[in-house]
Amino acid sequence: MLPALPSSEPVFPSVLLPVQARYAGGAGPGAREGEHRITANNRWSRVLLAFDDLPAGIWCVLEARLAWTPEEEGGQALDFALAGFDFLAADGSSLDVEHVPGLARTLLDPHSAWIAGPACQPAGSEFARAAPVRVAFGVPPQARGLALTLRSWRNSEGFTVADLRLRPGAALDAGAFRRRRLGPSPEPLRHALVPGLGLVVRGQIHAGRPSEHAGRASLVYRDRDGAEIPPPYPGTVSVPGSDDRPGLGATINLPAQPQARRFTLDLEPPPAAAFLDLAFRTWEEEGEALPAVELLGPPEVALEDRFRLESLCGDDLLDAPGFLARLSARLGRDPGAEAAWIPGPGRPGPPSCRSPAPGPCGARSARSCRGPTAASRCASPAARTGSCRRPRASARTRSAPRPRSRFPGASPTSPCPGSRRSPRRRPPGRSASRRPGRGRTPGASRPIP
Description:
Blueprint: E1 20-24, E2 28-29, E3 35-38, E4 46-51, E5 58-67, E6 81-88, E7 111-115, H1 125-128, E8 130-138, E9 145-152, E10 159-171, E11 180-181, E12 189-192, E13 199-207, E14 211-222, E15 237-239, E16 249-256, E17 260-267, E18 275-281, E19 293-295, E20 300-303, H2 309-313, H3 320-330, H4 381-385
Antiparallel strand pairs: 1-4, 2-3, 3-10, 4-9, 5-8, 5-10, 6-7, 6-9, 11-19, 12-18, 13-17, 13-19, 13-20, 14-16, 14-18, 15-16
């Protein structure tokens, strides 16, 4: 009998069990093996489970058994407990993946999934006070391990989780994870600069194997006309070229030790710089063997830390003028310089406060502007008196008598000149009384202004 041909599909274990468990915040082992007890201590009571040899690029299901006490009062909570997922590279470094199918980004863990309370579990689980928990998620292609954290959240009493395991499934689609591989000649991204301020670039680089020179960041500063400002630049290394090999320009090295390493670039533009062309690439050139190096997410580009929102506001509750005053002080402007940024009554407001089309009478509608000077920005006298496109008063509210129209020959109920709307006429013999059953005596009428 001939042996079976080897399958081209990778073979995964049917079930993955945790290899280590750690506790914090009052959590601890349960009454039997494989059971973990989590107390009612929001976010602090937790159990951390480690999984090794995680198959990459596939769907995976977390399976567990959730049990609670009869005194539990958080049964209606959709965020009864929190499951946190931290995917690890082969050397144990944490992967800051941009997006994982089936999971959400949170602050406590890189990715998470909420576990609903007892009242949201399948019917019949209230009698046994236990229910199965299943969470399906995609495994990033760079992951080789997983650190799973189960936290207390909205529970009022302690609960237990038992029989935790990972069950591998089908392969993911090719576009489930966006890959940002580095090459020898990438397309640079241009960023506008604030005069006198630096930029901070944050990201994470991953290499197939640890390397001190996994990749590099290439920088080119340009003036307002787009002309290149020749290096050297502060904080960069410039490699001159030769007759047979061009130079590398201004460069910042990006190591990958460990395999997944976060980097922060504090860039100081030259005085005349108005734009920055930033590119991430490999040290190897065209024709050389390229290493497996990639960015795990889009780099974050921001102003220097003292101009971040949390740094500007601090613990103070600032209104709009106070925020602009503090921003002006950080920019080194004279006291009161922020007044030039605030439009006054005689200046046009921001574009969002201007109506793109004129209303009847040739005036812009005052309702499209917000603020006390909205009506004064309309050019028509009718708009300033309120007779242009005045909303109809409700029958339940008494309003002041409508002012006479400033247009000759127009009645108080006639529309503004140029309007196609005809005056609303009441049929003869019909009063303005309300219908019976609306809280007033039938026949009692109130004039509509």
